[in-house]
Predict the structure.
Amino acid sequence: MTTTTPNRIADVLTRHEQPILEDWLREQLAALSARQDLISEADLRRQSTEFLALFTPACRMGNLTDITTPEWKPGCDFLGDVSRSRAIQGFSPSETATFVFSLKQPLFTRLRQELGTDATALAEEMWSATVLLDKLGLYTTEVYQKTREEVIKRQQTDMLELSTPVVKLWDGIIALPLIGTLDSGRTNVMMNTLLQNIVATGSSIAIVDITGVPTVDTLVAQYLLKTVYAARLMGAECIISGIRPQIAQTMVHLGVEFGNVVTKSTLADALSYAFRQIGCTVTKPAQRA
Amino acid sequence: MNSTKSNTLALRSCEDIVHVRQTVRTWMVEQRFTLVDQTKMVTATSELARNAVDYAGGGTAQLELLEESGRIGIRVLIEDHGPGIANIEQAMTDGFTSGQGMGLGLGGSKRLVDDFEIWSEPGKGTRVSITRWK
């Protein structure tokens, strides 16, 4: 009489729960020896115990090939949580997957002890355990990857908001200092914030400063011109400042014409032009005798 | 003419354009090109890379560091397998565009570099090579 394949793994897990756990912990600690700043042994023990408690009953259900079925859900959910927390803590993907993969050795050792004489059964069990643990290990990598992608997405959105602050320089004068690469996503956000701020502050002059933009090609120039024209339609004058010598030369060779758009080399020049436009004069206080 | 260093980068998205641009900039800084030279070459690369991404659905950029009788140069070869350009003369004319741009990219890039070569065959793709000498 032969027992069904899956139950032998579950039996081994139940019978040798404690030694397997200890071996597994030792394996993990060895693999993570350099990362003990990120996770304590106590946490590792808690996670491992909890996973075994979910893993063993799922094995007992008999399905070792498909981890998308309901009996694997608690185990997968738990692994997902572990992966997510490790991705955020700063573990590498392989360190994260090691959590599952390092269970192989302890499990195989016990299987060999139990089934030592029955080579066919041992090969079968080892194979199904490998397939199962590989799937679970890959699952942790997938979750890890997804978590990192979410972090990157969130950072990108944060950057979008950070990078377009509209500042008020004076009554009726606002400025938009641009920093970094202008791609279509950022430029749209920038244009919206600028136009909305023109209305909100009732400004008649908006200065777009491109000192911090490393490359101005025809696409960027086109975005800038569109912004200027849109501002003009709203009754505001838009000045472009921060045109450095190398950008000016490049624009000339490219053949980009800014036409009747006011451009200045520095933000200070733009501001002094803006003051003249709104009829403000700046005077230095008279020297005291 | 010797090629002393070479690197091929993929061009699929806007992020790739930025990456190619940054690589060209780094190489030129290493070779102590002037700021104006750097800016011109980087801008020309940006124009051509954008053409490949926008009109041909992507391609590759091959950077090469050249040395010819003691002179140092940087060459960028942008290649795509897009629709190609039927009338190169027309495409090089300022103000002509088949898309939404300003129509200055090709002609402008030619004016920004020392050597400019373009090969294109409708239905097969386009190759543009630009070189800036120090």
Observations:
- The two ends of chain B are 14 Å apart (CA to CA).
- The domain at 2-133 of chain B is CATH 3.30.565.10 (Heat Shock Protein 90).
